[in-house]
């Protein structure tokens, strides 16, 4: 049975267990008329039985599934001829891939036929291995089915034996549910741990072949050429400075647009606008915030970039077709609603008393905003800007579509630059071996990205929290 | 900052008479008033223009995409006088005449329709001669046209060896050319003078027709822009969202219930909360890295599959859903909990039979917003290989698939001009989906608030 | 200060309760104010003021004068409209969209709601001190200098220093803060903060100061200091103070106006109001029967 069928069988079994547990508890009580003698409700017995049936079996299934392919591969490799086992890692992976594709595309009968006909030694050894693989897979599937079903049935059988009038079915089932709830909330921790481990582990692999200093301070970035083995340790092809610089340039341009506009929108909507305008403007800005980034990327690459290029050329400037300016401006557009809504929160959090005090002294609205509200809301606004910067740094699609691939170290917004996220995408899309420095470099970049955004976020939350305390 | 120190020497300054001070205050204030009010007006204008600028951006963005998308919903077809001659079909005449229906069908299946197409076309334009011209003539038609002929003949075999008229698609370059405002016979982008004149002839004899492009919704991705559709991507999106919702909703609700109702105030709870808050700000591409390194390479789940996409998007949207669910649970008045607890219900019973149903509308709204966020997400899916060119419509969560945003990304990268309109049209579809989802959430919320 | 004996609030017993119920409040004539609303030397005069919040009438036909260089106390139960009335005297209600004001408000005979009169200028002449101390999150110096800066009252730093010092001195705060003028104003104690706010207000040299329960958020000692300060300030400024505490009104004011449900019930010299209230409602209030 394959996993998804097995899953549904298990689901059916779990539902049956509910009914079964319920009936058993009634039987223990001596019929439905006496169910009050049970300390827990029959439904609670049913629930407990269902959970005891489903959960261990499901966990087994998940563990089995995630470990299955590794074990099978090990077993398969051990049956292969010695000369193949001694192949280098990369070649072995290729060989195994080959076998896997044969095993999944041909029926066992076909393979046997080929084996009996073929005289080519290499070919026949591959088909033999494919046949072994199919057999192993079959055995694994049987083992899995048997294991899961047995665990489900045995645990139910063991449980219902213990049923008695005073059996604490409710307490037990509640304890299991509570454990499930804890596990669900712990997914957040697991995710963080998963991110840290995956990014860190691959980065360490990467830093074995490229020194961290070279990565952090090198000014040459050309991972494509570094793919060849003789260049891996070569002359600074993995210097990430141009990437950091490009990211900062585009982020800076985005902030240059988003912060003043977003802040002015926040000020106008919170201090000047009529209720009617607010009711209209808020959803309008939400539209801007809700548009997927891939749409912004399309807009940047096919509308804004050509316009900027034409404008630049009409006044005699040479503008790259994938200029940092286009990507930055569109990214700024995306971030405007983010800045405006967070700043508005910060401005609204300033106590009304301060505003009144200022008005009471004869200050005009703009004087009140500039001299009292903004200084008072400054920490909140700074927090908002930090979050916006973090978002701009991590933004991917706009830059992938509208910024360049070439790692130029420049501060000219009309030039093409590349960013950390663009390089991650470029390095990891398409076919690649997993262990090459090229793909590992993407994880090292991911580590930098994760650390930077995490740091900015923690800092921003801290600033905002301090600020909240000030007025609470 | 300047230090303000008032020296003691000034301490004995005579306090001014209130009258004189008053007078000078009023005077001085009125002196600056005009300037201050000008500044006020200027500031207000700047603010208003910022808001209007925001509106303008929305209008430009949506307007630009809509105007680019509209051509994609129409497609030009041409009516050809087709002659299904046996010789043109490369079927030997003698054998075919006596054939039974089944055998004929088999023959027709293998016949050479490209030849029929070409010959029919040359008959329509007898003046065209020379290899180069002939080739540019056939280039007017979609590469799919021969299959249209085939389907047409197979559907009605009685047309065999007869003349008939068949509508076929024009090539995407021709389609784009016809959609733009060129004078008749004028050469256009990727259309030369001759082609333009032939097209003019076809158009004037009313042999060209613009039809609603239904295949955009019913077919999958293709290398040929005039054939490419979004069905595969839509299906992929549907499957991915299904997985996302199936995983993130129960996990999110359970996590929120624990944190809001059960969690003791301790380090672990704090740690979970910090994690949730920070995960909400982690760039989505990092989740893609997680998916690639852990879910695909470690657990061995298939690349490009909606299952993996769904898991990655679940991890990404979980913080959003948890935060929204917690807010909804917090909003349930404590009196309900107290009333149920007072009747002897256990904490678990109170939570599941009283608190959760009350909080449900808010939770569902939060989940919908989370899914909307996942629906538009592209970057993490690129990492896990959902970026491949996939022609088949996926049918299960482990098939290779792509999703709508990724399809947009792929098309936006294509050099063919006609893909520009296709991309915009796919964006319109995506935005419409998002609009529907968000409207649903808004409606639910307002319904909830009314109650 | 004039020491006025206030009737002790009666212990609420059966007798007083029946007493109150016999005085049917709705039947008491409220259309006319008893006592004397006129001042010989009026700084501000208000005639027939009506104030509406949307459809709700908050102030109903109130007329009174604020006597120059004297303290006028506005008292009454909470929600009677005394704060609303006070805020209308320097057009603070302008910031509330739904608020509509009619009637005649004059400052030195000049209509303060005139079209061509600038509220900015008005507020420079009629300052306000609020219920809760609300110093700006700036330094002590900058708090006091704020008004002078926005109005452009000084030409140089020395003049500004002088204004800050004299204002702090007038507010009786200078000696306490002279060594830490650059410390944040929010770091001061509640009473000091309120005196800082008073210093901030008088730094603009207003003619009238409106005080909205300035001591209600303060402890008794700080309250006493503020009350003393008010008594000194009346030498130079005309003061209107809203207060909840009748004792306070008795201690600091020369005139008292008693508000009830948006109407001015009685006005007169403070000593008269507290010793010989002419209106039943006023009597009930100051004897503590309700409020």
Describe the structure using short key phrases.
heterotrimer; A: 472 residues; mainly alpha; MetI-like fold; 0% strand; B: 451 residues; 2 domains; extended
Verbal overview:
The complex is a heterotrimer of chains A (472), B (451) and C (291). Chain A has 17 helices and no strands. Chain A is mostly helical and 472 residues long. Chain A has two domains: 3-167, no CATH class; 231-471, Orthogonal Bundle (MetI-like fold). The radius of gyration of chain A is 31 Å and the shape is flat. Chain B is mainly α and 451 residues long. Chain B has two domains: 74-212, no CATH class; 231-450, MetI-like (MetI-like fold, Orthogonal Bundle). The model of chain B is unreliable at 7-22 (pLDDT under 50). Chain C is 34% helix and 24% strand. In chain C, α8 links the parallel β8 (208-212) and β9 (238-242). In chain C, α4 (140-151) runs parallel beside α7 (190-202), α5 packs across α7 (190-202) and α7 (190-202) packs parallel to α8. The two termini of chain C are 25 Å apart. Classes of the chains: A mainly alpha (472), B mainly alpha (451), C alpha/beta (291). At the A-B interface, α2, α7, α9, α10 and α11 of A face α1, α10, α11, α12 and α13 of B.
* Helix-strand topology string of chain B: HEHHHHHEHHEHHHHHHHHHH
Low-confidence stretches of chain B: 7-22
Tell me the name of the CATH homologous superfamily of chain C. Answer: P-loop containing nucleotide triphosphate hydrolases
Largest interface: A-B, 96 and 91 residues
CATH superfamily of the largest domain in chain B, please?
Answer: MetI-like
Overall morphology of chain C: globular
Give the fraction of residues assigned to helices of chain C.
Answer: 25-40%
Q: How does the helix and strand content of chain C classify structurally?
A: alpha/beta
What's the rounded overall pLDDT mean of chain C?
Answer: 84
List the secondary-structure elements of chain C in sequence, H or E.
Answer: HEEEEHEEHEHHHHEHEHEEHH
Q: Give the CATH architecture of the largest domain in chain B.
A: Orthogonal Bundle
Number of contiguous helices of chain B: 18
At CATH level 3, the topology of chain C is Rossmann fold
